[in-house]
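Final report, results section. Input specification for complex C-07:
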Amino acid sequence: MKKKTTIYDIARELNITVSTVSRALNGFSTISDATKKAVAETAERLNYSPNKLASSLKSGRTNTIGVIVPSTEVHFFASVIHSIEHVLKNNGYNILLYQSNESLENEINGVKTLLEAQVDGIIASISLETNDVSHFQEIINQNKPLVLFDRTHADLKAPSVTLDDFKAGYMATKHLIDKGYRKIGFVTTHHQIQIFNDRFKGYQAALKDHDLEYEDKRVIFGGLSIKDGRYGAAKLLRLEDVPDAIIAGDDFTALGVIKKLKETNNIPPEIGVMGFSNETFSAFITPNLSTIDQKSNKMGTESAHMFLKMINGKVTYNKTEHIVLEPLLVERQSTGKKD
Amino acid sequence: MKKKTTIYDIARELNITVSTVSRALNGFSTISDATKKAVAETAERLNYSPNKLASSLKSGRTNTIGVIVPSTEVHFFASVIHSIEHVLKNNGYNILLYQSNESLENEINGVKTLLEAQVDGIIASISLETNDVSHFQEIINQNKPLVLFDRTHADLKAPSVTLDDFKAGYMATKHLIDKGYRKIGFVTTHHQIQIFNDRFKGYQAALKDHDLEYEDKRVIFGGLSIKDGRYGAAKLLRLEDVPDAIIAGDDFTALGVIKKLKETNNIPPEIGVMGFSNETFSAFITPNLSTIDQKSNKMGTESAHMFLKMINGKVTYNKTEHIVLEPLLVERQSTGKKD
DNA sequence: ATGAAAGCGCTAACAC
DNA sequence: GTGTTAGCGCTTTCAT
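Structure output:
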């Protein structure tokens, strides 16, 4: 393996010094065009490739940003990453990816690893397991940009990009009410993560605003999955006063609800069903599913721009900013009650 | 912002030299336990965090690997990335992510960027636009590991992990034949990328092996999308001798085929439908879709292990290795013809 | 068991 | 317009 060429090789070749080469390569105006041209040609000829490590060590900036997400297997996160990478690449940044897999230990390790790699900042969505957020605090202590998206934490005073989940819950509920449903059940999960709580509160508020009774027994707290959806629906169907609509904590759970309803011949929109997050499949199942879109791409681009604003000092930890995106109601067959 | 602590700070604090600190931190056996303990404590107390940039500059290894994929929006790639990251993280590597967005120009830039970032190697799946692969050659010239997955190129002599796409095409076709279908159409795309070609050849071979006539007019070459699926199905339905089954180039296209068939009252499995890639939604649509699973997770872990083998010199460019995964037939309702 | 010192490749303050 | 030189933080050879 041949030795890699450095600016020293170029300098030697041209009988000039490395500083001239460095300046020429970086387009300094103090360098003559002739020299620039010679340097560029020689660099090309020697197949020179800059070592960003060295320049980063010197400058203290790596132009690399860490992104921590629970898992890229979840389409929502993969989609956010897609947008973040797209925007930041166009601004000269590379993306170091780290998955927490919903584990606090992994997440702690991720922050540590990324900081050791000298990333210029971190964009993260915290794991379900994360109750203590002190590991993120270290990023702030180093005065490096930290942007949170979707899953935030009250103890963490950092800029964020989230969805208005209260509104999302309210919207879903109101939509069902508008469609003529009156006895609305909810299959969801209990969690320290803000979003589930907010959606639930939105649900309660919408009921109240429309003079509908909130009933504890219509709310099933469990996990979020197809299986949990089936289970929740089954439980609601056994009530004396069976709900005429069910909101599920996410689209997978909604899918489970639909399956159970179809099996028991309560085919939606006979009983209305709403999900959250607008997964790819939701448009394609039968009946296709009304849901609340999470705006993953928007969330990604906004997160990236927030990071850039912090880099430019337009947003700081003292002058922070929280972007709250409007949820988007996607109306499909599963809530199409004819009244 | 306070200055970051370095090993010099620790050395000064303890009245020892940086070399001792460095060795202590790296667990050299020549350093006394007492010194190690003192160093560890002082590091902790001063909130020391190693600068990997500096050590990488010295050692020439970054423990970072570049991953280039068309797009994380496509679940297959997000899933492969998930597995790659998981395996390599556990082996001390970080992942630098780069999306080509199916653009050759982006891909060229990606390789360049990653090499400048001094990655220890690259795992990639090439873009649809990539006809010339010389940019990847540079990785090989630097004698750094390059592993290709799923989408490879004949001109690129590098280890790879792919699916047996000939077999996948054969398998899909044979499955339909076994189910009693005889006039099998194919809605696919023309492309320099090997996989589409291979699937098509598998389709032809299966027909031949079962004494079924191959008919040009039953094959529709277009794009791959829901829309293309509808279009392809419509075209096949207009044939004098309408096919009794349709294979689509991917699951999205298959979905389009199904939609068109349902609209025209040729509801599958009346006319059988097969897809490729087992997208999340394929299990949930009605009728749910028989398809060929791409083993994304297996592909990711195998790619990661291949990379590690190259790092360890067990696989080299002269002694290369190609892993070909067995496709997996996922049988569902869309091919359930009762004979 | 520890120290001294060179050097990884690049940048920039300071000269001329 | 270009050269000199120190230094970013760490590793490692050679000495002791």
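Chain B has a mean pLDDT of 93. The two ends of chain B are 76 Å apart (CA to CA). This concludes the modelling results for the funded period.
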